[in-house]
Amino acid sequence: MSTERLYYDYASAEPFEAVITAVRPWESGGAALALDKTIFYPEGGGQSGDRGTINGIPLLDVREQDGEILHIVSSQGAVCGPARLALDAVRRRDFTVQHTAQHLLSGTILRLTGKTTVSMHLGDEINTIDVDSQNIAADTLVTVEEAAADAIERDCPVIIHLCPPEDVESFPLRKVPPRGEEVIRVVEIAGNDFSPCCGTHCTSTGQIGALRVLDAEKYKGMTRVSFIAGRRVLRDSRRLRENADIVSRAVKVPLAETGKGVLALLEKTRALELRVNALADTAAEAAAAALLEKAGLAGGGREGPAVVVERYADAGMEEVLRIGRAAQKRSGAVLVLASERELKFAAFCSSKGRDIRPLLKGPFERAGGKGGGGPSFFQGQFVSAGELADFLSAVGGPA
Ligand SMILES: [Zn+2]
Fold first, then answer.
1. Which residues in the chain show pLDDT less than 50?
2. 16 alpha carbon – ligand 1 mean position (Å)
3. Whole-model pTM?
4. Which pLDDT value is given to residue 146?
5. What's the 101 CA to ligand 1 centre distance in angstroms?
6. 126 CA to middle of ligand 1, Å?
7. What is the 193 CA–ligand 1 centroid distance (Å)?
8. Of 102, 93, 144, which Cα lies nearest the Cα of 122?
9. pLDDT by residue (tens digit) across 81-103?
């Protein structure tokens, strides 16, 4: 049984009375409801299906199948009989605005560049059109955006023409109409666009409010243009301004110069990083010299112990590794250096032909360490200070 379609004329949140004529099982335990008449737009023409409720049960999707409109709900609670339909009118309005904006954008791009829109997608956040063009210059997009703003300001009427297929040639259509339809629905934006379309549209361009082109990128030999319209432009602007405000205050630059301000800050940070690195190397060299002095290895000869264990209470592993690398340049001894703060250690040995693994492996495994390495470098970590202490004592004697 076909459903009477009222969605083109009904966009209100006011409840609407209808009758559920069939309840059928649907994928994943849901149900598909058929109604005698519906106010819900079924997914199609690049526009997603409406949302809302039927007898309080949330609508998950609306599909058209073999001329019948199916209302998908998650609950099995629905039964045939009277139904109160409530449309999510805010969402419908949003999609109607995005959809009308898409017509205006595609029509304007065609008028100004001669390039056609091949496909479109209206998303919950961002919409896209794929334009049959290798490249659209940034200044062209600004011109398109301004021309669309002109059309919005002029509040051009949006006119729906219902015509038999044989008459459709009389319209300068932007795209090929669907085949096999008894009536073709041609959507005209006066002075801007003619397009066959089954979606929901505003009655004039002023209702779009604003149209913003966000980006254009190469996509499968075409250009994918992303855009937003209506309240989405307002929300986007608000969000960007909130972020820009944070950056402006933090970097202490005017709102309009946050980009330049952040780049200057990054450059300064990079210079500081280089300086900090140089200072850390100098400090590590000094710490390495002190370590070898303490161990009696300052001369670089073979005097002193073959294994040096050092515990650093406050240094992190990055600093410990720096000290180890500096020390192994000056001595061929086995250096086992630990960060007590991070419960980690690293072992170094620059003597060619010496393998430190047999020395470390037993104590390491007995203390329950995790890690690994090769003959000249080995690192690991423990879950407790006690385990780290046991390992260090076993390798080089008590602290
Ligand atoms: Zn449309």
1. none
2. 25
3. 0.77
4. 98
5. 9
6. 16
7. 11
8. 102
9. 999 999 999 999 999 999 999 99
Taken in order 225, 231, 234, 239, is the CA torsion positive or negative?
Answer: negative
CA of 56 to the centre of ligand 1 (A): 29
**Residues 300-345 pLDDT 10s:** 555 556 899 999 999 999 999 999 999 999 998 999 999 999 999 9
Quote the ligand 1 centre to 342 CA distance (angstroms).
61
User: How many A from CA of 105 to the centre of ligand 1?
Assistant: 11
Q: Are the C-beta atoms of 210 and 152 separated by less than 8 Å?
A: yes
pLDDT value, residue 192: 87
Q: Partners of 25 in the beta sheet?
A: 31
Coil, strand, or helix at residue 165?
Answer: helix
CB count, 10 Å around CB of 76?
A: 13
CA–centroid distance, residue 185 to ligand 1 (Å): 10
Residue 86 Cα to ligand 1 middle (Å): 23
Q: Enumerate domains of the chain plus CATH numbers.
A: 4-87 (2.40.30.130), 93-238 (3.30.980.10), 284-396 (3.10.310.30)
Surrounding residues of ion ligand 1, Cβ less than 5 A: 99, 197, 199
Give the pLDDT confidence score for residue 399 in this predicted structure: 59
Residues in a beta bridge with 129: 120, 225
